[in-house]
Amino acid sequence: MAQQRKIDTSHLKTLPRPAGLVLDAQLHLLDRQILDVDGVPVTTVDDIELSGPEPDQAIPEGADPPHISALLTGPVLGTRIFGGRPPSSRLIRIPWDVVSGVGTVLTVGVRSDSLDASWVERWLRDHVIRRIPGGRHDPE
């Protein structure tokens, strides 16, 4: 039977606990529906934007960790199928500071009309759904 070596960890520093909510982006944010303050669907989260050091660069000791600055949405279906990334100019940014809740859906504390991301929902409502018989009113 092999003997295990004991590793001396007494010289290692303990990391400080991060302030605020710690999220797993893939689990809690990506592909989640975004609802506005009235519960109206806005869009889904396709990517996130982080502030801080550039990717593949070391974070200097004592520097603040990267944090979420915006949620990104846009035309990413083609890139998910064929690979690559859409140009950043085609992505719509939703500032992180308008997010009011993270759960099974993300909620924002503003109306959908004030966000550029809801133009697809508005266009579909006005040009497709309203042309369907019964699509001009809410069912009771």
Describe, in short, the structure shown:
With 140 residues, the chain is an alpha+beta fold. The protein contains three helices and seven strands, in the order αββββαβββα.
Structure characterization notes:
14% of the residues lie in helices and 21% in strands. It starts with 24 loop residues before the first helix and ends in a 13-residue tail after the last helix. The strands form two sheets. A four-stranded mixed sheet has the order 2-1-7-6. It has helices spanning 25-29, 77-82, 119-127, and strands at residues 33-35, 41-44, 47-51, 67-73, 92-95, 99-102, 106-108. The protein has 140 residues and is α+β, with helices and mostly antiparallel strands. The chain is elongated. A hairpin with a 5-residue loop joins strand 1 and strand 2. The protein contains three helices and seven strands; from the N terminus they run H-E-E-E-E-H-E-E-E-H.
Task: Give the key terms.
about 140 residues; alpha+beta; four-stranded mixed beta sheet; three-stranded antiparallel beta sheet; 3 helices; about 15% helix
Helix/strand layout:
Layout: H1 25-29, E1 33-35, E2 41-44, E3 47-51, E4 67-73, H2 77-82, E5 92-95, E6 99-102, E7 106-108, H3 119-127
Parallel strand pairs: 1-7
Antiparallel strand pairs: 1-2, 3-4, 4-5, 6-7
